Fold these 2 entries.
Entry 1:
Amino acid sequence: MGELPDPVAGPGEVVVEVHAAAVNFSDILIVKGTYQVAAPVPFTPGSEFAGRVVEAGAGVEGLAPGDAVMGSTFVGAFAQRVAVPATGLTALAPGTDMRAAAAFGVAYATAHHSLTLAARLVPGETLAVLGAAGGVGLAAVEVGRLLGARVIAVASSAAKRALCLAKGAEVALPYDDLKRRLAAAGGADVVLDLVGGEHAEPALRAMRWGGRFVSVGFAAGDIPRIPLNLVMLKGVTVGGFEIGGWGRRDPEALRRGRAELARLFADGKLEPHVHAVYPLERGAEALAAVANRTSAGKVLIVPG
Ligand SMILES: NC(=O)c1ccc[n+]([C@@H]2O[C@H](COP(=O)([O-])OP(=O)(O)OC[C@H]3O[C@@H](n4cnc5c(N)ncnc54)[C@H](OP(=O)(O)O)[C@@H]3O)[C@@H](O)[C@H]2O)c1
């Protein structure tokens, strides 16, 4: 560990003074060295933040010192200042709460885009979310409700399930005996799987005919294998969503989704749940709270 010099904005880059940064599951994997892309060592972790522009590099248009922005990057956000390409930033309306903005971007974009683009969720359907009390999971509960779905949340503890119910889930279930519990709750048209491991198959088995099973993450660590006979017999479509890849192939769809989310956020219709806020010097504890599953919703790190 050591102090790094303040970053300088290169061409097309912007230096942002970080007011709040959010912990994402990928930060844990990057720190552990198990993410699909390795960060060059040494590095400062942190992939999502909100703050104010302090310097705009050559060629940057539309952003000036003092502007409020939120953004994402691969690493570097758990710091007082971060340099990012201007394309990774979204301008914030004056007066936007920086902590809510830091907690919003990745989780709600992942939830909204996976439900609309990959799952094609329609009003009146039943959505089951595995890992429903996590950052993306709680966002999916809220967004699913707003899209007109009945939401079944699956989470490990009574406190997490109570939070899911407060965020709009109609039913909240533990993981054990999942197939029977989900079936008893009416089954699901759409399963949003953020967990994988041993929980994917029971959820698939409790799906209604013609449903969509969408894989978004493997928080449990193991990548499940899906028996295709179930897919065949149930007429289920198995799909997936990864925000980076989808954004490269269909940037216009993600732009439309981001605009819709920005409107819902500004109207106060979506409200990220912040579990805890840690000062920068206790950043390791913030990462641990997410890694050991004691947190729900988003954990923030605040420099200063
Ligand atoms: N595809 C994409 O574009 C994309 C984007 C963002 C995130 N993701 C993925 O989505 C998943 C959720 O991300 P997140 O940021 O919401 O993470 P998070 O806040 O840490 O939530 C993960 C949730 O998974 C549940 N879980 C179940 N088994 C677990 C285990 N063995 N270890 C850890 N957690 C376990 C935990 O809830 P319980 O304790 O209730 O089980 C936890 O709330 C991750 O796999 C992440 O990589 C994918």
Entry 2:
Amino acid sequence: MSERVVYVVNGSISSWRALLCLYEKGLDCRAQRLRVMREPRETRSPEFLAINPRGKAPVLVEPDGVVVNESFAILDFIERRYPAPSLVSKEPRAMARELSLSHEAETFACAYEGLEALFERDAGAMSEDERRSIAGCLAAVEWELDLWEKRASESTFIAGDALSMADVSFYPTLAYMLRRGLSLEGRPALDAYQRRMRERAACAKAFPEGWTHAVGKRDLFALARSCANNG
Ligand SMILES: N[C@@H](CCC(=O)N[C@@H](CS)C(=O)NCC(=O)O)C(=O)O
């Protein structure tokens, strides 16, 4: 048997959730980092494209050679193949909530996605349409945060009082945005939640290499606010 390998892009939400799922299950793996910020991108190497023709991480390669692409498929696969400790309840209502919130975390990530344009674009040089689109993204993220704040205030973890697949999906999404400058001021339940989560050994292990809990070099949320306010 060889080792389990997960191909990851450091800091990407989808890679993060795959690692967090494995570590919460107590499964070891080698995280093989693929660099995408320099050319040629390692996700476009012939070796990696042979594993995933889309050239996207994460990809899980199991010790017996089984390959799984797509982060949600990886979570599903891990839960089915390694049922203990379980991250999805057997009770139908709890199961439905955990699975719904796990996938809704992706909707939250999509609401934010437009702000990533601020990595490359100078806010001062943006057109009226671009500013409107950034303002729209900010409003969508605020709406999402209100929803998740309410959920976080109702239980210890995001979908109930036990850690579940919903946390595996949601925590990296939230932590990623915090790194990009999101403030949880006025959202005490989410703030308490993210602090609680980051104390977990699995969360610390899955945390992106070289990242701290501080905001990264570019505060996208501050840029987005200035961009939207100048519109
Ligand atoms: N739907 C996929 C999305 C994966 C994805 O977009 N991965 C990006 C993360 S940055 C990637 O690997 N990009 C590398 C590239 O396009 O070269 C999943 O959930 O796994």
